[in-house]
Known about the structure:
single chain, 90 residues, mainly alpha, 3 helices, elongated
Amino acid sequence: MKQGISFWGVGHATSFLLAISFALCVIFDLFFPDHAMYETWQKLLPGFEWLSWKSFFLGLVEAYGYGWYFALIWVPIYNFVVLRNQKGAR
């Protein structure tokens, strides 16, 4: 029985989480400019500037890409550990 997790499921879920979080942070920054986080986004997302539509969509794409980067690293490690533990339990 395979106990690993889906690369595609984790990739899309994590990517959507980061893209939605990015969009919510931009909205927060617009309503509360004294507590803005856009300087952090400028450091984390290459090419992001405050604020234009082009830059906003670039930030969404990059945040989505970071989710896939996480999945690319984390899912194989997780599946390897689970498989190794299953073999050790037999």
